[in-house]
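Lab notebook, bench 4. Still working through the backlog of constructs that have no structural model yet. Next entry is a single chain of 254 residues. Request: give me the structure tokens for it.
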Amino acid sequence: MGLGTPRILIVEDDPDLRAVIDSVFSMQNYDVVSTPNGLEALREALKTPPDLVISDVVMPEMDGWTLVKQFRSHAHLAFVPFIFLTVLSTAEDRVRGFRLGADDYLPKPFHFEELEYRVRGALRRSQRLPTSMRDAGEDEATCLKGTLDQVGLPSMLAFLELERKTGLLEVLPAHQPTTATIYFSDGRIVHAVMGDNDEIFGTEAVYAALTWSAGQFAFEACEVNVQTTISATTTHLLMESARRIDEEDWAKIG
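Model written out:
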């Protein structure tokens, strides 16, 4: 987030609600951009990245699920806070939103005071986290550490791609006796292994790690001398992972 006025992107297909949200935050001197669906929102974000997104889920053209996946698959949008506003309020819906990379989830109907509070909190967290990581990233010897509840693995992969880092990322999930190691060369994922004997490797190891929502990670900048087993881009890996998660969710529902 820059030092100027925070830019908020509103994505809502209900024109009346969209206008009200726009008015509320415009009166608080935010730079507000409103769009009626995810497709237009993505176009706007790719042109001028926002500092925060407030989005409905069920919309024409492109729904909120797809929009947040698209954001998390683009390096320069990976850390943008994403708040869902939706009538879908079941625990399964909330879990799905968080797994896809949402930062917060507010069921409709909602109180605008609560939305304002959550927006302020998300902007504060966003201002602290990426700045500290980027400052640390200027030193190639720095080991970046964090937890998956602070920075989701999709965002971390996109960050390392954006910074064109070379080294290895160790990911330790909570409550599981296994570890994933993902190797980077100039920002590209070139290899990954999981398990004590590396029984899972390549793209399957990346997809498995991307299902973890809790745990710790540490990145160490270093030379990487491994056989390249992954040729897919980070964007492709993130989108394929999201597709697999969707399939698993629908299978459970079915």
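Notes after review: The CA atoms of residues 88 and 198 lie 40 Å apart. The radius of gyration is 18 Å. Flag for follow-up if needed.
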